Amino acid sequence: MKVKQTTDFFKMKQMEEKIAMVTAYDYPSAKLAEEAGVDMILVGDSLGMVVLGYDSTIPVTVSDMVHHTKAVKRGAKNTFIVTDLPFMSYHLGRDEALKNSACIIQEGGAHAVKLEGGAEVADKIAALTEAGIPVMAHIGLTPQKVGIFGGYKVQGKTAAAAKKLLEDAKACEQAGAFAVVLECVPRQLAEEVTASLTIPTIGIGAGRAVDGQVLVFHDLVRFGSERVAKFVKQFADADTVMRNGLTQYVQEVKNRLFPEEKHTYTMKSEELAVLYG
Ligand code: KIV
Ligand code: NA
């Protein structure tokens, strides 16, 4: 299959074909995502929480993102890959944003970068787009601002906040973003934003009236995610499957049931005779 392009995502919006996106952080998760037929993979900085065990996405670095993007790329050679610009990798100025995005694209192999923010990062979106780097914006609940929000909460619930969010979405489109993630916003607002933009909206906790959906891989398959947000649907239970397998392994080792003959190598008796004389 051919790798989709940003123009394919515009067409999908026009044709009202939903875009299915999921995060992936390594070779096997990327391979599974591609085999399942997702339209785009996000190497999200959520990797800090779901695979590295941090409390937030704040400690994640550009080199973490490059490292994981490389693995994802090897697992999903035919899928459009978007990689998050992590905390403070695009705030220090356009040059910094360009340099870090170049790393992610050239070294990591991503097709596009994602950054959090609306009007306040429009200059960075424009600089990256001008340099030929496709940018996905991310507004609503932006986890890199958890320290300001004071937790992971629904955004855009008041008329004033909703108006600001709509303006942010338009600013992202105007600056050249090819798509925008709407995280944790009321469905009515997501619908309004989607209708107001020509670029696709990708929702997470934004209801159905958006152009596509994204979920965190580990939330979707229930792998290590103890508590999940209201907007998550767990489509599988990998935790239970894996825990059962591991528990049985421990028991079989203790009870001398594993390994069996079929898992074992042997030497010919002639060789043994030589060995022991
Ligand atoms: O890092 C991430 O997984 C994300 C998605 C939740 C959109 O940014
Ligand atoms: Na992210």
Automatic annotation (TrEMBL):
Keywords: Cytoplasm, Magnesium, Metal-binding, Pantothenate biosynthesis, Transferase. Its cofactor is Mg(2+). Pathway: Cofactor biosynthesis; (R)-pantothenate biosynthesis; (R)-pantoate from 3-methyl-2-oxobutanoate: step 1/2. Its EC number is 2.1.2.11. Binds 1 Mg(2+) ion per subunit. Its main location: cytoplasm. InterPro entries: Pantoate_hydroxy_MeTrfase, Pyrv/PenolPyrv_kinase-like_dom, Pyrv_kinase-like_dom_sf. PANTHER family: 3-METHYL-2-OXOBUTANOATE HYDROXYMETHYLTRANSFERASE (PTHR20881:SF0). This is 3-methyl-2-oxobutanoate hydroxymethyltransferase. The lineage of its organism: Bacteria, Bacillati, Bacillota, Bacilli, Bacillales. The gene is panB.
